Amino acid sequence: MLFNAPALIFAGVALTSLVAASPVNLATRDLKNYVTDITIHESCNSTQRRMLEQAFADTFEVATSAHEYIRTNGPTDPVFEKYYGTKPAAFSAALGVWDALLYSNKDGVIFRCDNPDGNCGQPGWRGHWRGDNATSETVICDLSYTDRLYNQAFCMYGNTVAGSPLGTYWSIDLIHRLFHVPQVTNGQVDHYAEDYASVLELAEHNSTYSPFDSDAHQAFAAHVYAVEVAKGGDACVGQAAEAHDHDHTAATSSAAPAAATTAAAATSAAAAAPAATSAAASQDCHTHSDGTVHCV
Ligand SMILES: *[C@@H]1O[C@H](CO)[C@@H](O)[C@H](O)[C@H]1NC(C)=O
Ligand SMILES: *[C@@H]1O[C@H](CO)[C@@H](O)[C@H](O)[C@H]1NC(C)=O
Ligand SMILES: *[C@@H]1O[C@H](CO)[C@@H](O)[C@H](O)[C@H]1NC(C)=O
């Protein structure tokens, strides 16, 4: 090998003289300050901070599993197709959204615990994006701390991906809230579907927007986490309620989410009911850039 050395040195000299001969700009690239972590505002007390730190750790765990799942299994995976459809563009679009959520610059992305816009007083509000008042800020209201579940509790208490509100878990709720912050995905993720059933509908019949639909990403991530990490299997995924079933009778709507929303329960009215009741119990509102308030 040694006899190769002179040639290498010669090549090096040649390269050096070439470089010296042309006007090369040696200035370093003008990189912005890159921040990996979301800032928890000083208005959060020590308990809120500890809970939010855990919630963000959960968020990144779920987002990482979604990202890895797509990257590894590719666009023909049945779970991928279930939420994102089969259009050729879906793979890199969905992968890019998760990549942006995880790795885009979080400089200035702030979550706070005070109530600067006065919205937390409204019944059921658990938090909101500050919209035009501060586009990179999100407020988490006191109600969020009472019953959002951490990742360890995935698939517990009869919760299913299809039958429980996506915001049941801190991780999925914060993924949703991060999608509202324009800098995280350059404002590309929005609300096209409105619930689990319409996510599946969108993916099956009209999937152009699926890789940019907030709920599609939330549901996909919950599904992957429920099966791959929580090991909850099909019982934890559950079945979608009928897309346009508004027939929630009093008799069924008071039922707690079934411990096992099995395939057998799939098409029954009972399967639809938990989604309706729990959604009301954990109402989750946010304001869009056009000023409209969206509660799910
Ligand atoms: C933090 O704030 C919450 C909500 O206002 C309150 O219930 C809790 O006691 C506070 N914790 C500390 C350590 O001050
Ligand atoms: C912005 O602030 C105004 C005035 O405080 C408030 O009425 C409005 O609801 C706030 N917007 C959001 C999205 O919270
Ligand atoms: C497809 O989805 C988009 C976005 O939600 C919607 O604007 C459009 O009307 C849908 N098209 C059909 C045929 O459902």
UniProtKB/TrEMBL annotation:
Coiled coil, from the record: none
Top-level lineage group: Eukaryota
One Gene Ontology term, aspect cellular component: extracellular region
GO molecular function per UniProt: integrin binding; metallopeptidase activity; zinc ion binding
UniProt xrefs under Pfam families: HRXXH
Domain Putative peptidase: 30-239
Gene3D superfamilies referenced in this protein's UniProt entry, alphabetically: Collagenase (Catalytic Domain) (3.40.390.10)
InterPro entries attached to this UniProt entry: HRXXH, MetalloPept_cat_dom_sf, PRA1-like
Protein name as annotated: Putative peptidase domain-containing protein
Annotated source species: Kwoniella shandongensis
Highest classification ranks of the organism: Eukaryota, Fungi, Dikarya, Basidiomycota, Agaricomycotina
